[in-house]
Amino acid sequence: MPADRAALGAFLRSRRDRLTPAQAGIEAFPGARRVPGLRKEELAVLAGLSPDHYSRLEQGRQHTVTDEVVRALSRALQLDEIESAHLRDLAAPTSNRRWAGPEVAQRPDPGMLRLMGVLSHVPVLLLGRRSQVLARNGLLSAVLGPALEPGSSFARWLFLDPDARVRIVNWPDFAAAAVGALRYEVGRHPDDRRLVDLVQELRRGDPDVAQWWDDQRVTFRSSVTKHVAHPTVGPLSFGIESVIGPHDPEQRLVVYTVEPDSPTARVLPILASWMAEAQASLTTGGSTT
User: Fold this and answer.
1) How distant, in Å, are the alpha carbons of 233, 267, 270 from that of 274?
2) CATH class for the region spanning 110-283
3) Which of 130, 190, 216, 257 could form a disulfide with 239 if both were Cys (CB 3.0 to 4.6 A apart)?
4) Could you tell me whether strands 224-230 and 252-257 are parallel, antiparallel, or unpaired per DSSP bridges?
5) What is the pLDDT of residue 245?
6) Looking at domain 3-96, which of 3.40.50.1580, 1.10.260.40, 1.10.600.10, 1.10.287.110 is its CATH number?
7) CA pair distance 128, 252, nearest whole angstrom
8) Which of 229, 226, 238, 232 is nearest to 278 (CA)?
9) Intervals of the chain under pLDDT 50
10) In the chain, where are the structural domains located?
11) CA quadruple 181, 187, 188, 192: dihedral positive or negative?
């Protein structure tokens, strides 16, 4: 079975399992139930498909999936906007999704860099494909701890660096959303070998990643609150918002927003001043004369 069609079948099964007949608004078909959610026959009726057609979809034997079928399944499974987009990606014809030629090196969008300059009073991170760090400001490193230099992997730090779990108090909430974002990206770029290898590396390195990946959750630009335990200034709280650039949808600016006059907003200037002093000390070689 082609990998892309296997992914389509796995996603459909996971969404079918989470939806009961009562939630779908139908009477359960008679007979003993062996699945937690809808039976394949029940979903087929809801979507207006024949049971055989739906079985071929879930078993990866249906190579052509029309837009009409995707829309019908999205409605029947009560998918949200992001899940529906993910289903469209998984159902896209294989011939339309082949990786075309060598990848051009990722470079930060100039407009995004200008926006980062305007937002210098809060932590900001610019991410590209595969969660690669394209740029970040000093406050981001001051808050999270690691340098996260351009070219490094934010996902590898988040899942493979033990300090990430210590620094981010609500690490499971934030990390689960990050896994959902990786799944969404894999759906868009199933032939990106480096992306697939990254996911496999993270699944091997962290059992939580493996569990969340198997849950088939999909997220994209989700707003997540991040609570940080800073070793010097104490607890910090941020609302994490993502901005997609108009020129390159593969780049997203991750902004750590704060409530005005909140404890976190009041302490950030202190962190910034310490950061500036440390940088000045490095520049002058530590001399005070």
Assistant:
1) 11, 11, 6
2) alpha beta
3) 257
4) unpaired
5) 80
6) 1.10.260.40
7) 7
8) 232
9) 1, 99-100, 288-289
10) 3-96, 110-283
11) positive
Q: How many CA atoms lie within 13 A of 104 on its CB side?
A: 4
- What does the block give as tokens for 103? 């990848």
Residue count (the chain): 289
